[in-house]
# Entry
Amino acid sequence: MALYTASFSAIKLEIVAIRNACQRLNTFNLEGCELYSSCEPCPMCLSAIYWSHIDKVYYGNSREDAAKIKFDDKFIYDELSLEIKERKIPISQISRDEAIKAFNIWEKEENKIRY
# Structure
């Protein structure tokens, strides 16, 4: 199955295509699918592509092409390579002792769907 999109930063059509495919196929796992986009996926869309297990992505314009028309994700790509404490937006871990309880429950669950 091929997923076709035209990139537009306000509505993120890659995400819409992934969501629609998941609904249509009744699964979050899109192995066997390919995604076609007018531009190299942004970091958000790229994350969704990995989470959905899409096999291959085809794109027309590069991230450099996008930057030339002010759709510039370079800052985000750069931020992702930094340690959390070095990023521009402060990100702090809180309440881990409470939060880890949900993961512990999930880990012990026998009837879970693995990602």
